[in-house]
Write a structure and sequence with these properties.
Blueprint (H helix, E strand, L loop, with lengths): L22 E3 L5 H14 L9 E4 L7 H13 L4 E5 L47 E3 L8 E4 L4 E3 L8 E4 L3 E7 L2 E4 L9 E6 L3 E4 L2 E4 L12 E6 L2 E6 L4
Parallel strand pairs: 1-2, 2-3, 4-6, 5-7, 6-8, 7-9, 8-10, 9-11
Antiparallel strand pairs: 10-13, 11-12, 13-14
InterPro entries: CAP/MinC_C (IPR016098), MinC (IPR013033), MinC_C_sf (IPR036145), MinC_N (IPR007874), Septum_form_inhib_MinC_C (IPR005526)
Family: Belongs to the MinC family.
Protein name: Probable septum site-determining protein MinC
Length: 241
């Protein structure tokens, strides 16, 4: 008789989020002059951008993909790595460029230091505001990522396939969820996901997730609540009456 040993129970895979303060760079035309000003900052404080998360804000700029590729390369030569892009024109981002971001919460202006002897000048002058909800009046389009670590996210429309909503708290979707909804990423197992029509690619709470293939098809197209119970994703239909 062949003896088999019982396999130990596998610990569920968890994905957790972390909230970091990022520096936002907003280039102004002409870009060559703006880069020269950036070089002056680096000359005064060579390590100002060292290890600092940087977001590129392109709002108001009319850049082609080639222009953006050149700008990202120019910043890379200055040891500035761009983690994401806000306000990019439609069709500009894609493979080989940083991903689109939206939903960030401003924390005030960051003054560049006059020299390496004044590192505190780079810190915000006031503490961040308290946690609050992010309300989106427009649908979340395919390829878009909404990241809000400080509270709930409320989407008044739909979340398209290929889109992603990530929240430190709960997620409320008053349209169809066809993309990915990731709630409680700040370590909040009490977070929940609600949507009017349930057709997701993936749902996750506090690092535990289920992809579309793992979800009960009985909930497809229904108004659904998603919550975490005993380290398991639980779905429940919402009463439409």
């Amino acid at each position: 008789m062949t003896q088999t040993s019982a396999r130990p129970a596998r610990t569920p895979i968890r994905f957790r989020g972390r909230s970091f303060m990022a520096t936002v760079l907003a280039p102004l035309p002409p870009i060559a002059d703006w880069l020269a000003e950036l070089d002056a900052v680096n000359a005064r404080a060579p390590s100002f951008f060292a290890g600092r998360p940087v977001i590129l804000d392109l709002a108001g700029l009319r850049l082609t993909r080639a222009d953006l590729e050149e700008l990202v390369a120019d910043l890379g030569q200055r040891s500035i790595t761009i983690l994401g892009v806000e306000g990019a024109p439609d069709g500009v981002l894609g493979p080989g460029l940083p991903p689109p971001l939206s939903g960030g919460r401003p924390s005030g202006e960051v003054a560049p230091p006059d020299s390496e002897a004044a590192p505190d000048a780079a810190l915000p002058a006031s503490p961040p505001p308290p946690a609050r909800s992010l309300i989106l009046d427009a649908p979340v389009r395919s390829g878009q990522t909404i990241l809000h670590m400080e509270g709930d996210v409320v989407v008044m429309g739909a979340v398209a396939s290929g889109a992603e909503v990530i929240a430190g708290g709960s997620i409320h979707i008053y349209g169809t969820l066809r993309g990915r909804a990731v709630a409680g990423v700040s370590g909040n197992p009490q977070a929940r996901i609600w949507c009017r029509r349930f057709e997701p690619e993936l749902v996750a709470i506090d690092g535990l997730y289920k992809a579309a293939d793992d979800l009960d098809p009985a909930f497809q197209g229904q108004a659904v609540e998603v919550r975490l119970v005993d380290d398991a994703i639980l779905l429940a239909k919402l009463d439409r009456a």
